[in-house]
Amino acid sequence: MDHMTARGWLTDKERNWLFILAQSVKPKQLIFNVGVEYGASIVCFCEGNKSARVIGVDIDPLKFTDHKYTNFNFIQRDSTALAAEWKKRISLLFIDGGHTRSIIKKDLAYTNFVKVGGHAAFHDCYSWDAPLTPHKICPEVNEEISRWYSLNRDKWIELPVIDSIRTFRRL
What we know:
Layout: H1 12-23, E1 30-34, H2 40-48, E2 53-58, E3 72-76, H3 79-83, E4 90-95, H4 101-107, E5 114-122, H5 139-151, E6 156-158, E7 166-170
Parallel strand pairs: 1-2, 1-4, 2-3, 4-5
Antiparallel strand pairs: 5-7, 6-7
Helix pairs in contact: 1-2
C-alpha cells in the first residue's frame, strides 16, 4: 500500500499535499491526525516522513489494520476530550474528525500547540467537485475554520487550497 492507493476519502491532489506537508516535519517531531477512519492520511504522513512521530486519534476503533509503520501510534478516544488535556507540541496538525460546529470548535484547541513554522490543515472545507465552494454536506467545517482564521490572522497565514483542504502555517 502506498499513499496514493490507501483506502480513504482523499483526492489524489490531497494525498500528494499531505505527503509533501509531512516532508516538512523534522525528525522525531510530531504529526498529529484527528480522525483516522481508514488511514489514508496516516499513510500519506508515514510514507512522506519515516522519521517523524505520527499520532492518530479517533473515537472509533482503528479500521486501518494493514499498516507497517513503526512511527505511528493510535489513540482510540474522543478527540475533543483529549484536546482539553493536550500538552505536546505539534509540527503538523491535520483535522478531519467530527464535522459538527461543536466538535470543530473543540478540535481547534489543538492549533494552540502547533509550533511556529508548523502547519494546520483541515479537510472537508470545500467540495471536491466545485473549487472554493463550501462543502455541501458539512458547511460548518469551512464556517468554523473561517471564523477561527479571522480571529487568528496575526498568528497564521493561509496557503493555497488543495481541493477540500485549507492549510495554514504558524507565524
